[in-house]
Design brief:
The chain is built from 4 helices and 3 strands; from the N terminus they run ααβααββ. It is α+β, with helices and mostly antiparallel strands. Strands 1-3-2 form a 3-stranded antiparallel beta sheet.
Length: 114
């Protein structure tokens, strides 16, 4: 029986790798369903622009480094894409998808494979 903390508790890095692999597996299922329906892209996440440190300004302007404004789950999705999906030829489009009252609203993250 393991008694040392190192034997009992995996590292945070181990958990993050496990989480990333689980997210990649879930995304793979989404992609397969979209392909079966003749699609070449699928929106994988939609979130309020308040999850960007600049409320989406860099995304709207398509500024270099826009990904650095992401926080929380959107940031995790970007990192997952950059590490696992981009090397396999997938594209990620991130854009403001609605403008309620003329102001920037939600941000959509779309994964493409065309």
């Amino acid at each position: 029986m393991a008694t040392k903390p190192d034997e009992l508790l995996p590292t945070a890095k181990d958990f993050m790798q496990k989480l990333a692999l689980a997210e990649a597996e879930a995304a793979s299922k989404i992609i397969e369903r979209a392909v079966a329906n003749g699609r070449t892209e699928v929106q994988v996440h939609r979130f309020p622009n308040q999850l960007c440190t600049d409320k989406g300004r860099a995304i709207i302007q398509q500024e270099a480094g826009w990904e650095d404004t992401l926080t929380g789950v959107p940031k995790e999705i970007y990192v997952l894409w950059a590490k696992y999906f981009r090397p396999r030829g997938y594209k990620l489009r991130v854009e403001i998808v609605d403008y309620p009252g003329g102001l920037p609203g939600d941000v959509g993250m779309t994964l493409g494979w065309d």
